Amino acid sequence: MSRSSVDWHPLADSDPVPGSPKAIDEEVEHMTGVAKKLRDQAEKLRKIARKEGLKGKYSDKLTEGAGELGEKLDQTAERYEGVKKHLSDWSDQLRLAQSAAEEARQLAKSDEKQAKKDLKKATERYHGRADELATLIENAIDDDPLTDSWWDNVKDWIDKNAGWLKVVIEIASYVATAIAIAAIFISGIGIGVVLAAGIAVLVARVVMAAAGQGSWADVALDVFALATMGLGRGAVSGLKAGQAATRAAAGAGARKAATGAAKNSMNKVYGQAGRTLASKSATKAQKRAAREAIEQADALAAKAGAGAEKAAAKAPVPKASRMDILRAGGDKDAAVAYKDMMRMRGAHAGNGAVHAASQGAESQLRLNQQVFLSGQGIDLGGKALGSSDTVDKPYFEPFQDYKNEYTAEVGSSW
Q1: pLDDT (tens digit, 9 = 90+) per residue, 302-356?
Q2: Cis omega (within 30 of 0) on the bond before 145?
Q3: Please, what are the averages of pLDDT over each run of 10 residues along the chain (414 residues)?
Q4: Distance between CA atoms of residues 368 and 233, nearest Å
């Protein structure tokens, strides 16, 4: 009769000491066999490490790491041996507890009160020994050299949750791409938001790839996209610096032109004052007045120049259309800076300093265009050609096979 079919009333509703000593014995036997095989393989690896019986040009390669791997197998065998010893003890304790419980069940037919006392004693011993041996097994595992590192635990968690993690990361990747494209058409989405989204996806993919649940090829594609974004920021900075220099040159030119124009408009004042200062018959008071007239004229000319320079500096920047932004590599600041430089170059066509300051605008704009197209092209191309964890879509098999070649976890206590 199996224990599951035994009637334990009135002592209990079901088997108070469940378990199968036979199943435990079978597991102990299995673990004993595994430990022996591990020991045998470890000894073979140690012989390889000692180059026993090895000859030829490949012998050095074969011995590399053989000793270390043999040591790992020995440590694994020790874990099996330690755990199976405690399991064997549990099998013996379980038999004793079940035998005592069965005696109590039989006694209940004649002395129910004493039977309940005996059964309580048997179950208390059963649970006490179960907790004690479970702790010994846990300690045996925690204290052996094969204890998992924090990274092993992280990888184990990722392995168990890889399915939904891949879906979340893929969705986040599409969101990051959408933000980068939306930034072209929607004001208020700065480069900081785009970079933050891209970096978040990159970090997630690095962790997944390191755990063996992602491709390092995907990581490389993300790094390339972020690197091109960084180059683009350099080009934008160059355009903005050129804009500032061009505006400064335009302001200086406006100041010089306005000052000269103001002085030309006061030629009579300068002429009269000059003749007075040159005259031998002019009195001291007349000469003093002439000098004051020149000073006043200079001050007025300087004021006119300063006003022109200020007006040039405060001239409103042109607005960039969506097409301007697209042509500028998807960056509004770049589009505005380039358009402003071209406007000032046209307005000050004869000013060499303005032309020189705006000289690199075209090359910086082309650079930003190229890196934008490269980054977006790689990102969108990778999404189009690769398989998806979220939807069932066609993909380019050679490309996906290439990515799969670069799937390998890193770091382990093994």
Answers
A1: 999 899 888 888 888 888 888 888 788 778 888 888 888 998 888 888 888 888 8
A2: no
A3: 77 89 89 85 77 57 64 75 84 90 90 91 91 82 62 83 91 88 72 82 90 89 81 81 88 89 90 90 90 92 90 86 81 85 86 86 84 83 87 86 78 52
A4: 8
- Confidence at residue 66, expressed as pLDDT on a 0 to 100 scale: 65
Residue with tokens 């005592």: 100
User: Cα–Cα distances in Å, from 384 out to 104, 109, 172, 198?
Assistant: 71, 76, 16, 18
CA 49 to CA 70: how far, in whole Å?
Answer: 9
Q: What are the residues whose beta carbons fall under 8 Å from the beta carbon of 163, sequence distance 6 or more?
A: 389
Cα separation of 218 and 203, whole Å? 11
Cβ neighbours, 10 Å, residue 1 = 5
CB 332 within 8 A of CB 320: yes
Name 151's Cβ contacts closer than 8 Å, sequence gap at least 6: 411, 412
186-197 b/e with 16+ CB inside 10 Å = b? eeebebeebbeb
Q: Are 87 and 24 in contact (CB under 8 A)?
A: yes
Contact present, 137 and 86 (Cβ < 8 Å): yes
- Distance CA(186)–CA(142), nearest Å, equals 55
| DSSP string over 266-300 | THHHHHHHHHHHH-SS--HHHHHHHHHHHHHHHHH
Is-above-0.70 flag for pTM?
A: no
Give how far Cα 252 sits from Cα of 51, 266, 312, 353, 412, Å: 82, 21, 9, 9, 65
In the numeric block, the tokens 């050129």 are attached to: 242
Decide: 144 and 78 in contact? Cβ < 8 Å.
yes
Which DSSP category does 149 fall into? P
Residues sharing a CB contact under 8 Å with residue 128, sequence separation 6 or more, in sequence order:
none
Q: Residue 212 is encoded by which pair of tokens? A: 């063996």
DSSP state of 187: T
Closest of 63, 59, 66 to residue 43, by C-alpha: 66
- CA 305 to chain CA centroid, Å, is 53
> Is 375 exposed, middle or buried, given 0-12, 13-18 or 19+ CB atoms closer than 10 A?
buried
Between the CA of residue 235 and those of 80, 213, 241, 268, what are the distances in Å? Answer: 62, 36, 10, 51
User: From CA 140, how far away is CA 135, in angstroms rounded?
Assistant: 8
- DSSP per-residue codes, 314-328: TPPPPPPPHHHHHHT
